[in-house]
């Protein structure tokens, strides 16, 4: 299946090097993500740095530096020096250079720099004939490599180059975006080289290159915005571009000139041409250029943070010589551009990092303010979302799941949390949920999420969601490769725009956002930890206080009760023994003494049993409330004998609770209802339940004296009474006991009333035993 | 001759009131009063000041839980561990039913306990019942019966 040759005069990007590969591979996938996996990385094995030949616009000599002896040479020396190659091998190069002390000049080469060093235009004296060449030398892999090109242009050198560069540097400083910087560089390179088209592109994280700046002559189609697949430049080519920042192919139709001998006698290996200016390129790459009608190309690496960030790429429809000075200028320009991009990007990173920090501080402040991670974050929902450039968020703890903005429904988020707790060790992020988390129905709502666990023990998460961003990618030609019948690889023949719509992806999560989320998590954990410590401290303190209180209760029981007993006992004995001698008043006083002592005794007894209620363990079992209410009615029957009470008892469920405690609570409530309807001719006491999702709610309603809602806050307090003791007896501990009992069950109590109309008391018991009590 | 009732009580008021209660129950038994646990053990084991007392165990011991020197539980333990004493019925007198030591008293084999009620009349009736039960109805098999009497509400 061959792609039709596009009619346009296509000249583009001739720097990419292809590798011959015998393995058959056809890319058919259309998804952006399938590309890197399916491209011809398997063929990225050919050692392009040892092609065994050079481009013929110059010649190459490989020397043993110790004696400056020529060990290898390109076959085309014949064309340049009019000498047989076999005659040259073994000769000392210095002997051929009458005007130069080569050994002396070589001292100028920096030890670590492998880039060719210009030794000047040099006269060769061979077989009595003189030849002038621009001569370059570099050391690599233990070999001194000397390359020569036609001489003559070197003289203009730095005098003309310097002003160009100076202007460029000034302009660079004003470029604010990387696109603007690249455009400046592209224009400058085009001016210096006069290539028909110059463009700059940057690589994305998958290695695809997108054209972000372009300058082209008339007749060259516009490629601005187009993408070049990662496979256009195999991995080892990228590695080479990192080390050697500029490459030129002056004429794609060249016939390579082979090196002889093939294997370097110095190293025992083929000569390594990684840094050689004349290095020959892969035949597939030449085919690639040919398919586009490109005859000359040059590329300059843009290296940011030690990585191949992008390329400046030049091409021309005609063969083109690029002088050494121009190349040097372009390389320098590339280096300056790289530095400036690095500065802009690092500035941008710093800005973003700073803003993340600020948002982290805002969130932490809110958490500290509300003394709660969840409440704090909910206080600043916009900050929470902006923090990760998210459209929605979730704060998930074991008790609750709070959603902010655009999120999947709660049930799906909860399922996601379960998935996270089993599939993700730590934080997790994806920009494509249908690919990475296909089991959950996430893709109907969002495309990407970032989740960080904020507890080491529980499934507590902060989650940010991003929605799908439909992306249209304009490829420079359909990214398809064709393998010929003979097994050789043929790069695509058309580079016309081929549009692909990519769906299912959210904007990717960048490293700063991920790092930021982890920093936020650590800070939150710090808060939680500190809080846990505080709580533990409080619990310890509470335990101690409770112990003291218990000891106090005990001593009250023993020590306070005894004197009360004695007062009552002696008062009675006094009455028994001396009663007839007392006046009526005296007898009444004595009775009051006894009554008061007994009342005080009852107070003490009740207080003790109340405190006991707080300490005793809750023993859970099934409690049939209907049966319980019936039993209490029977038990209390003597208290309302002779009265007319209409009982309306609705159906009551079975609850899981401590039977003895619930019995006591119900008895207190029913006894109150009986007591406070005492003056009603027709008393009605209604007992029933209301269903609810999470709890069983009960109520006891009476038409008694009721109470003023103003005092509802005092109703459940210890020794709080809303009636005079002459009206209704009691010591004011019944409702306090009810509250303590219900709260011990993690339930709630509340009441409503109206003076003269009656009261209704509610209590609610959780349907599920809360975790905290299961441990008990 | 009836066996005596041994009353072990440190508080003079409680002592007096208990004695009045016993008096009102019209028991014929002699009441022997000791004021702390150590003295009780001396009496029971016929040693110290009681070395020369006549042989024989009390019909019932009314033992206060909280006592100076040797407390009620220790006395009870000693009694239950002693071959000659372990069949003596022991009624524990306590100040409140919330006493955490009550459970322990049961473990040690107390026969009954009385929460000293604030209401004197109740106290008299409780003491009378107990006295009659334990002192008059002779000796039941030890530890076979437990009577608990709570104060009337």
From TrEMBL, chain A:
It is an enzyme of class 2 (transferase). Residues 528-555 form a coiled coil. One of its GO terms (biological process) is regulation of DNA-templated transcription. SMART domains: GAF, HATPase_c, HisKA. Residues 555-769 form the Histidine kinase domain. InterPro entries: BphY/WalK/GraS-like, GAF, GAF-like_dom_sf, HATPase_C_sf, HATPase_dom, His_kinase_dom, HisK_dim/P_dom, HisK_dim/P_sf. Residues 177-335 form the Phytochrome chromophore attachment site domain. One of its GO terms (molecular function) is photoreceptor activity. Its EC number is 2.7.13.3. Keywords: Chromophore, Coiled coil, Kinase, Phosphoprotein, Photoreceptor protein, Receptor, Sensory transduction, Transferase. It catalyses: ATP + protein L-histidine = ADP + protein N-phospho-L-histidine. In the N-terminal section; belongs to the phytochrome family. This is histidine kinase. It comes from Pseudomonas duriflava.
From TrEMBL, chain B:
InterPro entries: CheY-like_superfamily, Sig_transdc_resp-reg_receiver, TCS_response_regulator. Transmembrane segments: none annotated. PROSITE patterns: RESPONSE_REGULATORY. Residues 4-131 form the Response regulatory domain. Coiled coil: none annotated. The modification 4-aspartylphosphate is found at residue 64. One of its GO terms (biological process) is phosphorelay signal transduction system. Keywords: Phosphoprotein. CDD domains: REC_Rcp-like (cd17557). It comes from the Bacteria. PANTHER family: RESPONSE REGULATOR RCP1-RELATED (PTHR44520), TWO-COMPONENT SYSTEM REGULATORY PROTEIN (PTHR44520:SF1). This is Response regulator receiver domain-containing protein. It comes from Pseudomonas duriflava.
